[in-house]
Specification:
It is built from 12 helices and 2 strands; from the N terminus they run ββαααααααααααα. The chain is mainly alpha-helical and about 240 residues long. The chain has a two-stranded antiparallel sheet with strand order 1-2. The chain is globular, with a radius of gyration of 22 Å. InterPro entries: HPS3, HPS3_C.
Length: about 240
Amino acid sequence: MVFTVLGIAISIPPPLTLNSNFETLKNKEDIIQKPADEGHFGRRYNWLDYLPPFKGPEDMKKPCQYILRGSPTTARRTGSNIRQHVSHDHCNCGLCFEDLLKLQSLLCFPKASESLLNRALELLDQDNLVPGQDSILILVLLKTNKQRATDILVQKYPTVILEFGKCVMSSDREQRKIVLDSVYRALQHQIGKPDDNEPVYLQSLKDILDFLARTTGPEEFLNLLPDNGNFLFSTIHIHEL
């Protein structure tokens, strides 16, 4: 089966069928197939709800404004004319961006293939108006260049750092160091030329340290601290270990 998401053709292997003779299965491998490298949806990461075009989980739950404004029932209730076309600028619901949600889920699949990643990058190169382009790029880079993916998110979406960090650091030791160092560098850049993001980065660094102090052992936590970091700043978290 082949379907298209944002212009990318994705093939899905046929589902596994049981033997018609109902023969006795000798082991788990008889009934479990490892999924192919593409065409399988992964669990979509929570932090994606906070990246454009979405503004939070509430966007996933709210009614589609296109349907509300185009519904005869709604028109009768409000006394307004039926509108047949509503721009995405007016609606960020999951229904209007269904293709984006599907592509994000495909890219969240742990074994997403290199061909899928390349096709996603080609899509971004061909059209700079692709909805959710930053989220697509970050998802691809998380599988090819974790440092760059993290730096993009930290620099462009500082309010999402904690949600992103909790997701990627939970099972990836390398990513823990990458996230912590990236946030620390961003905070250092605020020195001399602070902006509105300075308190956001400071709080994010505190939250990341708190998360790591609760989820790692003392030795690993100390090894994660930036070499040129402020040791006194981390003391409160070290005491919690």
